[in-house]
Amino acid sequence: MLTPMDIHTKEFGRSFRGFDETEVNDFLNEIMKAYAAVLDENERLRAELSREQAANDEFRRIEQSMRETLIVAQKTAEEVSSSAKQNADRMLEAAAKEAQNLRREATLQAKAQMDDAADKVRAVVAEYERLVREKHQFLRRMKGNVQAELALINDAIAEMPDVAAEKKPPRSAEDMETKQEGVGER
C-alpha cells in the first residue's frame, strides 16, 4: 500500500523543459496530507466497525442465551405440568383439586416466564435491528464520503494540464515554404 511517506520521498527524473519542481513538490505535499487524512479516517472507521461488530456479537450471544432460557422454561413448564398430572392421578378427589390448582399456577408461572423471555427476545431483536439500521446508515454515509472524495480526485485530474496536447508537432518543409511565400507576397 502506498504510504504518505512514499509520496513525500518520491523523486522524479529531471529533463529538459520538465515540470516546475516547486509545483510538483507542493502538489505531492497536498496529496500526502490528503492521503494521510484518508488513511486516518479509514483506521478510525475500521475501529468503529470493529466495536459495532463486537456489540453485534454480544447481542447475538444474549439472543442465544434467551433462546436457551426459553427452552429451559418450556422444559420446566412441561415437567411441572407432568408432575401435577401424576399427583392428580394418585390423590383423592380433594387432592385432585389441589393438583389442578398447582397445575394452573405452574402454567401461569410458565406462561409468565415465557412472556418475559419473549419480551426480552423482542427487545434484543429490536436492538439488533436498530444496530443493523445504524450500520447500513453508516455504510451509506461512508460510501457517499468515498464517492465525494473520488469526485474531488477526478476533478483535480481533469483540471491538470494535458502536456501531450500542448506539445506542437514540428513543421514540415512544405509548411515552412508556404509561410515564406506568404511573407514574400506582402
What would your notes on this structure say?
The protein has helices at 4-9, 21-90, 93-159, 163-166, 173-185. With 186 residues, the chain is mainly alpha-helical. The model has no long low-confidence stretch (mean pLDDT 85).
Keywords:
186 residues; mainly alpha; 5 helices
Summary?
The protein is mostly helical. It has helices spanning 4-9, 21-90, 93-159, 163-166, 173-185. The protein has one domain (4-9, 20-156).
Share of β-strand residues: under 5%
Order of helices and strands: HHHHH
Structural class: mainly alpha
The overall pLDDT, averaged over residues, is 85
Q: How many β strands by DSSP?
A: 0
Instruction: Please tally the helical runs, counting DSSP H or I stretches of 4 or more residues.
Output: 5
Low-pLDDT segments = none
Give the end-to-end Cα distance, rounded to a whole number of Å: 64 Å
Apparent shape: rod-shaped
Q: What is the count of distinct domains?
A: 1
Q: Give the % helix.
A: over 70%
How is the main sheet built? none
Q: State Rg.
A: 39 Å
